Amino acid sequence: MLKAFIFDMDGVIIDSEPLHYEVDIETMNYFGHVIEHEQLDKYVGMTNPEMWKSIRVEYQVMQSVEEIIEYQLARKISGLRSLDIEPIEGIRELIQNIKNRELLVGIASSSPRIFIEEVVSKFGIAEYFDCIVSGEEVAKGKPAPDVYLEAALQLGVEPQDCLVLEDSRNGITAAKAAGMGCIGYVNLNSGNQDLSQADEVVKKISDIKLENWKIGFKHLER
């Protein structure tokens, strides 16, 4: 039965993908390369090390992954702190609804822990989460299931008793590979994402109805 709700973060709790795209393009420019917005779509949901390892090879970037991330992450945190932004509409209400049902709540994000903690601190919602797991803290990031399996382990529940909210193809693939139910959220700022693997797709957070979810997630009542 449903015991835990696990959030992705970027594009789900915070509409941060525009910031990520902007800084990633700026980072490539800084190191002497050009990358387009559309070329970054396939990396949405992946960890920084895995994304930059791939980009570095494809674009023959001379700097190390560590050097690239050092530059990029500093600018993302600076950009986040300067943003006048609230959580995505409906997220505060959803979190409260989840807590009212006495479900456990986690975050399983591909972002570095320092960025995750900046976000939940900025929004004043850190206290609501029973666990936070970064994809950089497990063996393989999304689309591998590791980050979701680790979140379930930390929450003390079985994967099949978890429901995930995701906005990217890589994230949904990870959640389903972990054996979890998954809701796909259509965030246009997350690029062209294939959400077809999700058990349900919503265009508004307020469309999520927790009471519809049953054991095993095989039958979603309408």
UniProtKB/TrEMBL annotation:
One of its GO terms (molecular function) is hydrolase activity. The keyword Membrane does not apply. Keywords: Carbohydrate metabolism, Hydrolase, Magnesium, Metal-binding. The keyword Cell division does not apply. Its cofactor is Mg(2+). Coiled coil: none annotated. Belongs to the HAD-like hydrolase superfamily. CbbY/CbbZ/Gph/YieH family. This is HAD superfamily hydrolase (TIGR01509 family). It comes from Fontibacillus solani.
